[in-house]
Design goal:
The chain is an alpha/beta fold. It has two domains: 151 residues, Ribosomal protein L4/L1 (Ribosomal Protein L4, Chain: A); 49 residues, no CATH class. It has eight helices and six strands; from the N terminus they run ββαααβαβαβαβαα. A six-stranded mixed beta sheet has the order 2-1-3-6-4-5. It is elongated and about 90 Å long. Keywords: Ribonucleoprotein, Ribosomal protein, RNA-binding, rRNA-binding.
Length: 229
């Protein structure tokens, strides 16, 4: 695997290079671990607001629809019972919290493993910026992006405060945009290529390099779990 990546300028030419720390971009990919973390992240995103009415909640009389004996029919106690049309639902879903507790070290390890997989496949790229023009930001950014990658689904990682780049790429249909502190295993895995801006790459790498990888990698999934809770 390459230990460095070229940084492309707004013309698509090499404008420098960045190093790929082995502890972040060249670790063993633990598939069961990644699967557990991704399932937990998807579960935490569920609203859990589904609800059906039981026999005590549906409208209808509580009296017997007909007498107990002498009709030749099966005895019935209420029209609100499940076997009747409009009756209650048996064991139906009720509002619940689907969030799973996932250790932050597992979340960080899953992110490193997924990034390492993309790095070994040559699917991580670094550019200076997506603010490639003063007019028609999105059109010019889409044309520039097509020169950098040719894949269908692209994850673009920006630094917070890079509003011009965000405006340029947020409406491209094939693009998903995150700030570097929101980067997570799920979004990496569902994307074919990951494109960092130079500032976002430096900011992301500075976390693991300074021992803050757990906090940086866990921020997105942790925020989702807090919303669900």
């Amino acid at each position: 695997m390459a230990t460095s990546l070229d940084v492309l300028d707004t013309k698509g030419n090499k404008a420098g290079s960045v190093d790929l720390p082995a502890e972040v971009f060249d670790v063993q990919t633990n598939i069961p671990l990644i699967h557990q973390v991704v399932v937990a992240q998807q579960a935490a995103a569920r609203q859990g607001t589904h609800k059906t009415k039981g026999r005590g909640e549906v409208s209808g009389s509580g009296s017997k629809p007909f007498k107990q004996k002498g009709t030749g029919r099966a005895r019935q106690g209420s029209v609100r019972m499940p076997q009747h049309i409009g009756g209650g639902v048996v064991h139906g879903p009720v509002p619940r919290d689907y969030a799973q507790r996932t250790p932050k070290k597992m979340i960080a390890a899953a992110l490193r493993g997924s990034l390492s997989d993309r790095a070994r496949g040559g699917r991580i790229h670094v550019v200076e910026t997506f603010a490639v023009a003063d007019e028609r930001l999105t059109k010019n950014a889409a044309e520039y992006l097509s020169k950098v990658v040719q894949s269908k689904n692209v994850l673009i990682v920006l630094e917070r405060g890079d509003d011009v780049s965000l405006r340029a790429v947020r409406n491209i249909p094939s693009v998903h945009v995150l700030s570097y502190d929101q980067l997570n295993a799920y979004d990496v895995l569902v994307s074919d290529d990951i494109v960092f801006t130079k500032g976002a790459f430096d900011g992301f790498v500075a976390g693991p390099a300074s021992g803050k990888s757990v906090k940086a990698a866990a921020s997105s999934a942790e925020a989702t779990e807090e919303v669900s809770a």
